[in-house]
Automatic annotation (TrEMBL):
Gene3D superfamilies named in the record: Oxidoreductase, molybdopterin-binding domain (3.90.420.10)
Pfam families per UniProt: Oxidored_molyb
Key words of the record: Membrane, Transmembrane, Transmembrane helix
InterPro entries referenced in this protein's UniProt entry, alphabetically: Di-haem_cyt_TM, OxRdtase_Mopterin-bd_dom, OxRdtase_Mopterin-bd_sf
Protein name: Oxidoreductase molybdopterin binding domain-containing protein
GO biological processes: respiratory electron transport chain
Domain spans labelled Oxidoreductase molybdopterin-binding: 305-437
Organism expressing this protein natively: Actinacidiphila glaucinigra
One of the record's GO cellular component terms: membrane
Highest taxon of the lineage: Bacteria
Length: 438
């Protein structure tokens, strides 16, 4: 370790002996008088609470897909030790996924102004010269690089996915999953290195006094060891109160135009950033969908009179027409649909056959899992595996009707799965085969 530190120091000396590059590397380039440890720490404190919540709800979202059931559900098959926390996703409370994913997406959008403000406040550090002075500083700068790069990557890919505008190569789930772990590791290292300095900076100024100080009373902070305070500050054009207020107003605005897609009710009309129509129509089937039947290749002949449901289990398959299914004892459940993009519906009133009853019909009343297959042409989410606890929940249905009417084609006619607390994409539509397994 001592040898490595010596090599880093020698390398730093060679770089430091070179002339300082022009532009942002020069100490007098950054002149904002409000930039300094206190303002940086205020934004950092918000992120210190917000980012862990966003990370935890994100990994919970991954667990909700029950990736342990096999490759059909596992969007990140090479996760290795990063999947150490996975558990059997529960079905109670039935709104669990709606809450966790809605919070994840909404918080991610709301924190964007804070993240940008934090990056603005520390940008002089990204241009320090020489870039390396010691092994400890090298570690800190590496963590900063991973923190900034990982943060930008996670926020950009997440927001693009929410808006159904994903343009990055590879699977969103895999890239976002690995990016999240890189980001949170860098975040933990950075907080460990900077927590003491942050607390000292926050104590250096009274928050309420600072929020009462206008532009005329704004003065630069004392010089700091990190070089955030400019050596030649310009005259203030904005107070720290103005900077905090502007960032807070931006976050509040994003909350208003985003949260309604998860909360619903009257706020749904304000969700201008929602990726789906805020007014999906009227009538029993007038609620949001993820993909239309036409967009995934569902044609009328695939779900017409010749359609049959196959139920496989311990004995010979049971083949049933839709009329036969409708003649069987039916049950109801009031459940929402909640999707990974953060949007959700209000509770819809579904009617159909309990998965538990179909498991008993297959000869496996204590089935440990079921493979649900759609008539949808092969592709992502054309089939899914559900756990035993999902099968046995009395509200888990093979739904045939919704809100008193037959399912529309876009909502999965002639039959679809609806399971409490299940990600929307795992509530498979246009089901034609159920294979129960021990």
């Amino acid at each position: 370790m001592a040898a490595v530190s010596a090599r880093v120091s020698a390398f730093a000396e060679r770089i430091g002996s070179a002339a300082t590059p022009p532009g942002p590397f020069r100490s007098g380039f950054w002149r904002s008088p409000i930039r300094g440890p206190w303002l940086t720490s205020v934004f950092g404190l918000v992120l210190l609470f917000g980012i862990p919540v966003m990370f935890v709800t994100g990994v919970l979202s991954y667990a909700a897909y029950n990736p342990g059931l096999g490759p059909i559900n596992d969007q990140t098959a090479d996760k290795g030790l990063l999947g150490f926390y996975l558990f059997d996703w529960p079905t109670r409370p039935y709104w669990l996924y709606r809450l966790t994913q809605g919070l994840h997406v909404t918080l991610g959008v709301v924190l964007v102004p804070v993240l940008l403000a934090k990056l603005w406040s520390v940008i002089p550090k990204l241009f320090q010269w020489p870039p390396l002075r010691s092994a400890a500083q090298a570690l800190e700068r590496l963590s900063l690089l991973l923190l900034v790069g990982g943060g930008i990557f996670e926020f950009v890919t997440g927001i693009f996915n929410v808006q159904l505008f994903y343009v990055f190569p590879g699977s969103f789930y895999t890239l976002h999953f690995y990016g999240a772990w890189v980001f949170i590791a860098a975040f933990v290292v950075h907080v460990s290195l900077r927590f003491g300095r942050m607390t000292r900076a926050l104590r250096s100024r009274n928050l309420f006094r600072e929020l009462r100080t206008g532009v005329s009373g704004t003065r630069p902070e004392p010089p700091d060891a990190d070089g955030l305070v400019p050596v030649a500050p310009a005259a203030p054009t904005m107070s720290r109160r103005g900077a905090v207020g502007m960032v807070g107003a931006g976050s509040l605005l994003l909350l208003v135009v985003t949260a309604g897609q998860s909360i619903g009710g009257r706020l749904r009309g304000t969700a201008l950033l929602a990726p789906h129509d805020r007014d999906p129509g009227h009538g029993p089937n007038g609620f949001q969908i993820n993909k239309t039947a036409a967009s995934v290749g569902i044609t009328p002949n695939l779900v017409g009179p010749a359609w049959r449901l196959e139920v496989h289990g311990s004995g010979r398959p049971v083949v049933l027409s839709r009329e036969q299914l409708l003649a069987m004892p039916r049950h109801t459940a009031a459940l929402p649909i909640a999707c990974v993009e953060g949007w959700s519906t209000a509770d819809q009133h579904w009617e159909g056959l309990r998965l538990a009853d179909l498991a008993a019909l297959s000869g496996l009343p204590a089935a440990g899992s079921v493979l649900v297959e759609s008539v949808q042409p092969s592709g992502p989410y054309s089939s899914v595996m559900l756990r035993g606890n999902q099968i046995r929940d009395p509200r888990a249905l093979l739904a045939l009707r919704v809100n008193g009417a037959d399912l529309s084609m876009d909502h999965g006619y002639p039959a679809r799965v609806i399971v409490p607390a299940n990600p929307g994409v795992n509530n498979t539509k246009w089901v034609h085969r159920l294979t129960f397994r021990t």
